[in-house]
Amino acid sequence: MKVIVVGAGKVGTQLVESLLNEKHDVTVIDNSQEVINNLNDNFDVLAIKGNGVSSSLLRDVECSAADLLIAVTDSDEANIVSCISAKKMGTKCVIARVRSPEYVNESEFMRKTLGINYIINPELSTAHHIMRLLFNEHVSYTEDFAKGRVRITEIQVSPTSNLLHKQIKDLNLPKAIIITAITRGGEVIIPNGFTTIDPLDTLYVMGERNSVDTFAQTVGSKIIRDRIKNVFITGGGRTALYLARELEHLGVNVKIAEQDYERCRLLAERLDNTLVLHGDGTDINLLKAEKVEEMDAFVALTGFDEENMLVALLAKQLGAGKVIAKISRSSYTSLLETIGIDNAVIPKLITARDILRIIRGGRIVSLSLLIGGRAEVLEVLPQPDSPIVNKQLKDLGIPEGLIIGAILRDGQVIIPKGDAIVKSTDRVIVFTLENHMDKVTKLFGVRGGQKGIL
Amino acid sequence: MNLLVVVKVLGMLLLCEAVAMLPSLVVALIYGENTVWAFMISVLITASLGLLFFKVKVKENVIRYKEGFAIVTFGWLLASLMGSLPFLFTGALPSVVDALFETISGFTTTGSTVIQDLEVLPKSLLFWRSVTHWLGGMGILVLALAIQPALGVGTFQILKAESPGPISSKLTPRVSGTAKILYRTYLVITVVHIILLAVGGMPIFDSIIHAFGSVSTGGFSLKNASLGAYNNVYFEIVILIFMILSGINFSLYYFAFKNKNLRDFFHDTELKVYLFIIALYTIIITININGHVYHSLAESIRYAAFQVGSVITTTGYVTANFDLWPDLSKALIVTLMFVGACAGSTSGSIKVIRIHLVFKYIQREINRLVHPRAVKAIKINNVAVQENILTNVVSFFMLYILIFSFAALVLLTQNLDLVSAVTASAAAIGNIGPGLGLVGPSSSYAALTNVAKLLLAFLMIVGRLELYTVLSLLFPQTWKA
Q1: What pTM did the predictor assign?
Q2: Cβ <8 Å between A264 and B375
Q3: Which residues of chain A have a CB within 8 Å of the CB of B386?
Q4: What domains appear along chain A, each with residue ranges and CATH number?
Q5: Predicted ipTM?
Q6: Residues in Cβ contact with A406 at an 8 Å cutoff, skipping those fewer than 6 apart
């Protein structure tokens, strides 16, 4: 398929990578020569320097024949105009990134009247994602699939755990769960029965929801049953604004610390019950004065990764319940697990995930990116005539990095073995490393002519 | 200061006033009163002076802040001066001070009177008194703006200076359009009010006088005992409802009408607080007077509600002599004099929105003691109020109290007792009308000294034009180029 990406910033580049993994033809437009050179050096794409709003440039890249245009430049307005122009010139589907809070309630207008098929708001998505993390019983990353029946959760192995130095086959895992991946010192390992568990490993455990919870508890993961009532946010950017607004709606007490006075004013004007504090949110005196130790959750959302990580650690040390840090460089994620931050939120991955969900559309019901974008979990409805249907899994030549984690059939969660068979009426939860994504689409026949765009 | 443009606008104003005197002339003709000549001469003088002013050649047709303040202040003084002519020429009020007091009390919708026996006054004069109310309620200059759109650039300054409330906004792109909308709304409410009173059996002339008095929140009646003379529950309910309606921001009516729904109307913060205050005061006063002054609960509610509605809207109609009520009720009535109704209405005093903001401001300061670093926005209708408006409101509040106290002190030198002096000052600056004691609901201002009368008349104008408009002219900087 032919895809045009306008703007190759953090999200743009991440997208290009994901799209190439799925064997799409990608054209990238960006107005910085440096970025273009960088793209040409690292990826097999057509990179063109220019203004993505210009109609002559759009004509030159043959946007009339393109299946998809994704506008992710820094400017909302440029993204909107670029999408409208491309749509008028014949691009099948257009996606614009629009992040200004003023446009939040206008996505309906943009879709219906301006003809932009999808609006992506990274900060809003990030806020939604944090909301999910906050209201999750698990302290660490957890996500549910198949309407909450299947759960995948991250388990940090503590140095005193009774799992240590055992091989997986000796662990007596409950039937309804499977360890899909282990990260060890930044490496992703797809385990088999003979893999041993080391200290500081992180396990990604998938399975039937209650079984996963029980297992997580027996190995010492904390589970919070009380509802979140007090949240402290450091850094008052857009994500903080969206997050505070949603928390306010649920009656949660929110405090935001922000250094810039004008920004504080703006937050105070836009929020109703949130306490906006003018001050350095990384200052221990401020944190103590505002009783961070009594907070159920602490969210670090400043613009600096290092600051977020450190203040999150500080809050954890002071005694805050759940600690979440926003990180823009996914290379830091492996570090976070070891230093003890409960959750890292990576906005560019969330955005890329949002866009991938749209692109794959159709029979892929939901999708998340794990381990800094190096792995995905998908919920797929297989095509009736696709290769996977009615064959034993062991005969399909499924590569090592691709795991059929769970099958949902008639409300039952099945953790499949090699002799299991997928039926066309099943929902399948797949765990895959990024380089096997095209294999997933082939196996399940979800590519081409379906309800999705591509 | 661009004086020529000020003079020109004042000319337009006087022409409007001359036209406004004509209906009273017609009334005089209908009833065959000997006041016809007095009105004819008044119209002639006002119109010729107006024409003279209006014909002034203006070099630069621009109205800025200063000119806006000057036009409004001098406009009100001049209009009052001309408006007092009929009282002088008919001989109803031979003293210039009395005639001026009565006219200013009319235009500022205060409703205090120096006429001891209203019932012997010619109908045409009674009518003129009420016309001054009606014009002053929405603003005489707003009327001039509605009629003559091409008065100059920057006429919004006039609208801002004359219309009550901390925040003025246009309803339409043009000032004249906004002025027309305001007057149209005002006219509709007035006509409905007249009809409702007449349907209930009040004589048509009395209905007009009382409708003018209540929609302008003025309070002039044609009976010595004010509305109490009729002792009619229906009249009282209709007038109470219309006083309260006139105390609501007129732009709310416009938006409700334009958007064809009442959702925003009832979600307005100021309106909610206003109705809450009325309800709260009515309940407390009812409990306080029930059994002591009145013997049935229904009677207590009837009199409490009317007096509360009348004072908070700064109308000043009375159906009961609240001077005879228990001290708590009297004190509550006095505190109500400092509240007033909503901004953008025809009422006077401080206005609910300002009181509300002052309370929010205090609340924020207290909150700051607990969280010294907290940044908090004060919101009205979910929109943050700008800090400079807040400062303005707080200083308005202090200035209001300052002027009121100072005037009360001066009144004490004019043979008034403490209660009378304090309430006379509050009733004048708040454009209410009756106070307590010597200036209570059952007496008039006739017995006061000329100094006291002039001071009160000045207070009325200062209060009606919301302090800053008049006071800015007392500073020499305003007059420098």
Answers
A1: 0.80
A2: yes
A3: none
A4: 2-120 (3.40.50.720), 127-134+225-345 (3.40.50.720), 351-444 (3.30.70.1450)
A5: 0.72
A6: A145, A146, A150, A178, A206, A207, A208, A413, A414, A415, A416, A428, A429
